[in-house]
Design goal:
The chain is mostly helical. It is built from five helices and two strands, in the order H-H-H-E-E-H-H. It has a two-stranded antiparallel sheet. 23% of the residues are buried.
Length: 199
């Protein structure tokens, strides 16, 4: 059972590292696309407001948030992979053993994985919502005239900040539930209760 639980842990660590790589790659690709939009703008008529520029800057901020979260995920979990010698042949004799069975390990590692994904993506969204584009228009003086666009304002979007903050807290709690259970089973491997003593 020890090898199967350790296999689940290895899958968990490699999956989180892979998610970090994916966040970095897609964040970089989107960042470069947004940067090109800023550096090489589309031709716009004189006098109009270039909303594309504002939205590109907002997208660049969001992509930087995803890149930073992806780097943290990748570096932390890759260091664990290296520290626990999960690359190449492993020394199974000197490993600490978990008291979890296979299905318990799958459940709690999946719980940790889902919680960490919710936390990571919500945290990146939380950070990017402090730089939000708000389109504004001047109220026309005469009822028959069109609305006059005013350059957009940049500021925090409180509703999305609160939503992302709540999602981050929920993801953190879910991750901590799985994380603490996993680490308790490694600290107390002899803590397993025999089914005969319970009945």
């Amino acid at each position: 059972m020890k090898n199967k639980v350790e296999t689940v842990r290895s899958i968990y660590l490699y999956l989180l590292s892979l998610v970090g790589v994916i966040m970095i790659i897609f964040g970089l690709i989107s960042f470069v696309n947004q940067l090109l939009t800023v550096l090489i703008p589309s031709s716009i008529p004189q006098g109009d407001i270039n909303y594309e520029l504002y939205y590109s800057i907002q997208g660049m901020v969001r992509n930087i948030s995803f890149i930073i979260v992806g780097i943290v995920l990748l570096v932390y979990h890759w260091k664990l992979i290296l520290k626990e010698h999960r690359i190449g042949k492993r020394d199974l004799e000197n490993e600490s053993e978990s008291s979890m069975n296979l299905f318990e390990a799958i459940f709690f590692y999946l719980l940790s994985f889902i919680g960490l994904m919710v936390f990571s993506f919500s945290l990146a969204s939380f950070a990017s919502n402090f730089f939000f584009i708000k389109e504004t228009y001047a109220v026309p003086v005469k009822p028959d005239t069109n609305l006059t666009p005013i350059p957009p304002t940049i500021g925090p979007n409180v509703r999305y900040i609160v939503q992302s903050g709540i999602a981050s807290i929920i993801g953190l709690v879910v991750w901590l539930l799985g994380f603490t259970h996993i680490h308790e089973t490694y600290k107390n491997p002899d803590n397993q209760v025999d089914s005969d003593t319970v009945n």
